[in-house]
Amino acid sequence: MTILLIVISRISLILVVQQIYILQGTPLNVASQNAQVFVSESSEGQAIASALDLLLILLLVLFLVTRIEKREFHLTDLGLNIQRNTLPFFGLGVIIGCALFFGATLVGVFLGTIELPVNPDFSQWPALTTLIASITFYVLNSFWQEILFRGYLQTQAVNRFGQYTGIILVTVIFVIFHGLVQTLTLSGILTGFLLFSFIGFLYDKIKSLYLVGTIHAVLNFLPALFDTWWQGLEASIIYGIALLLLILVIYKQIRESKEI
């Protein structure tokens, strides 16, 4: 269903952009090609496409809640309570995302898989507008995924199967989803499993989609900014450590609550 919605949003956007080119006097075949390039390769087109994805996912969740489950829809059920320390969660998400990225970078330097210096590459965005559009794309793309998989599916799975089983189940589904839209190596699957398990447990603990959505967005944007992409041991080590520490914190709090 999710992939179908993405396909629908892409085709719809391409047809709209194609029509705009035609109205400007561009021949049909050229307009069709230009529209596909705009949507799939330009920062502006990707940002618009992600906005459509976000809208369609929200409508899908709204339909599932109100028509299938027959209950009222509340944004707070998806971790989108705008009155609950929203800005601090955005800030914390940036900090955690940066810590994970640069931590993995340092591990890569230690292992010899990454060479210093690691500098940001702004040349890929020739104008400020393209940089803003690119950031918008990464943010919206991350948030619609977190809304669907963490805010809705994980909440349902945890309620039905319990905390650990529900989180791991949705994490596996999320990794499979990524494997359908991009090629993943075995190390990439492990990296994704560790990262999204960490994000899943963090969301279950904090119940803020702003936090996990921002972490996801930062970890998507920084590799593009620094032109550093990995699916290897360096990221797996850092994500594994983060997951282990989080589980230990959760376990400690559970024990303390039982002792009271």
Explain how this protein is built.
There is one protein chain. The protein has 2 domains: 1-73, no CATH class; 77-259, no CATH class. It has helices spanning 2-23, 28-41, 43-68, 86-111, 128-161, 163-181, 186-206, 209-225, 233-259. It is built from 9 helices and no strands. Helix 1 (2-23) packs across helix 3 (43-68) and helix 5 crosses helix 6. It is mainly α and 260 residues long. 79% of the residues lie in helices and 0% in strands. The model has no long low-confidence stretch (mean pLDDT 90).
Note the run of SSEs as H and E. Answer: HHHHHHHHH
Rg, Å, rounded:
20 Å
Number of domains: 2
Taken from the alpha-carbon principal axes, the silhouette is globular
Q: Ranges with pLDDT <50 over ≥5 residues?
A: none
Category by helix and strand content:
mainly alpha
Biggest β-sheet description:
none
Please give the number of β-strands.
Answer: 0
> What is the rounded distance between the termini?
45 Å
